[in-house]
Design goal:
The complex is a heterodimer of chains A (111) and B (110). Chain A is mostly beta strands. Chain A is built from no helices and 11 strands. In chain A, a hairpin with a 5-residue loop joins strand 9 and strand 10. The N and C termini of chain B lie far apart (37 Å). Classes of the chains: A mainly beta (111), B mainly beta (110).
């Protein structure tokens, strides 16, 4: 089993609130990713990081931001949540072998 | 054109049947290939890596065809528990971010 953890698993929050989705991995992986996925739809990469202090935007434009101050931690922040941000957010990590491991996901609902 | 394309299905098959499907990729320099399985409202999980010579894991067989730029997955003796979406994953640039297909849905019926 992969050692990658996301919190919260489920969050219902009001419009305009600031939220942070936490992601931690204990595998020492350099690469970490955030994907967004709506039910029944494909994965979209929104952020990735190759290591500490390295962050890049992914293929899908997102209003969220990320930081990578420690190898094991890759939090995602939305400064002002909107209903259009309602989705599942999946954190993942990989080592040089490129097998990618996913967390269980954070389901965000903005009302 | 998408980097990775899959037939979305769904493939509806009876228990015990064999089902196979492909995934095409656009970058001929791609180096690593994987099949992931995703259950409804769950995270994707690695099913198997795909090696150049082809490889088998129990009832699952993966093949790579570099000349035609596709990988395939074959499931023999399908079980109800094989019902899932199967994601094709390609590393298009070596040590770089992975490209995911949209997934092929397989439903095994009793």
């Amino acid at each position: 089993e992969a050692d990658i953890y996301q919190t919260p698993r489920y969050l219902v929050i009001g419009t305009g609130k600031k939220i942070t989705l936490e992601c931690s991995q204990t595998m020492g992986h350099d690469k970490m990713y955030w994907y967004q996925q709506d039910p029944g739809m494909e994965l979209h990469l929104i952020h990735y990081s190759y290591g500490v202090n390295s962050t890049e935007k992914g293929d899908l434009s997102s209003e969220s931001t990320v930081s990578r101050i420690r190898t094991e931690h890759f939090p995602l922040t939305l400064e002002s949540a909107r209903p259009s941000h309602t989705s599942q957010y999946l954190c993942a990590s990989s080592a040089s072998g490129n097998t990618i491991y996913f967390g269980e996901g954070s389901w965000l609902t903005v009302v | 054109r998408k980097e990775v394309e899959q037939d979305p299905g769904p493939f509806n098959v009876p228990e015990g049947a064999t089902v196979a499907f492909n995934c095409t990729y656009s970058n001929s320099a791609s180096q690593s290939f994987f099949w992931y399985r995703q259950d409804c409202r769950k995270e994707p999980k690695l099913l198997m890596s795909v090696y150049s010579s082809g490889n088998e894991d129990g009832r699952f067989t993966a093949q790579l065809n570099r000349a035609s730029q596709y990988i395939s997955l074959l499931i023999r003796d399908s079980k109800l528990s094989d019902s899932a979406t199967y994601l094709c994953v390609v590393n298009p640039w070596g040590d770089y971010k992975l490209s995911f297909g949209a997934g092929t849905t397989v439903t095994v019926r009793a």
